[in-house]
Amino acid sequence: MFQIAGYRVLVTASTKGIGKGIAKVLLQSGSVVTVSSRNAENVESAVRELSKLGTVHGFVADLTRKDDVQALVRKAAKAMGGIDSLVYVTGPPRPGFFSEISEEDWDYGIRLLIKSAIWVTREALPYIRASGRGSIVYVTSVAVKEPIPNIVLSNTLRIAVHGLAKSLSRELAPHVRVNAVLPGHIMTDRAIQLAEDVAKRTGKSPDEVLAERAATIPMKRLGKPEDVGYLVAFLISPYASYITGASIPVDGGLLTSVF
Questions:
Q1: What pTM was estimated for this model as a whole?
Q2: Average pLDDT estimate for 46-71
Q3: Secondary structure of the chain as H, E, C letters
């Protein structure tokens, strides 16, 4: 469907949620995929499930540890015979308002949301340059355009990744394309976690919170992880050969800003 059969793709933080949805779409499209998680059981479970769709490798890596990230890229490149595309996904930092976030939370968030992007990009770039069809897609959040209450860490730190993406899109062109995807409210464990946090504060049930959230979206539903995967597959494909430096939302129309 996307003409990416045989593409070798590393998708970080991809044994659950959005990352797993992306891996599914890529495998269904014929790509060879490496998934990762810091939890060994999650890696084993995801590989068992995803292997039904195509060739998939899985490795344990904590994205907040530089050595782990470097080892992940080397293992992925060896297993797949190279890397054509990097799809950068991270797990979420803790939710909370500014007054609730500690210095340690900020330090962890910087490693999780900024330094991990730098580490994995630096390590993967030589393989991506050599592939001849290389691309990078950073998956962040609509919060970089319109901050979401109660997730100050994401609101603040993920913006830096867009600065990196835009800079690299110019620095690496025309040989490597670099784009970003901004998911909105996607039905994942993270969405449930945030709904539970709001429920505790308001006295509503998590289901009520999710229903209210869906009502604010013009499409009147939360997205599926695969909705993000379809856009990622397009962006790494030959069909997107003239697209670089773009930040594209997948949000059901949630964002109200013009740009």
A1: 0.94
A2: 98
A3: CCCCCCCEEEECCCCCHHHHHHHHHHHHCCCEEEEEECCHHHHHHHHHHHCCCCCEEEEECCCCCHHHHHHHHHHHHHHHCCCCEEEECCCCCCCECHHHCCHHHHHHHHHHHHHHHHHHHHHHHHHHHHHCCCEEEEECCHHHCCCCCCEHHHHHHHHHHHHHHHHHHHHHCCCCEEEEEEECCECCHHHHHHHHHHHHHHCCCHHHHHHHHHHCCCCCCCECHHHHHHHHHHHHCHHHCCCCCCEEEECCCCCCCCC
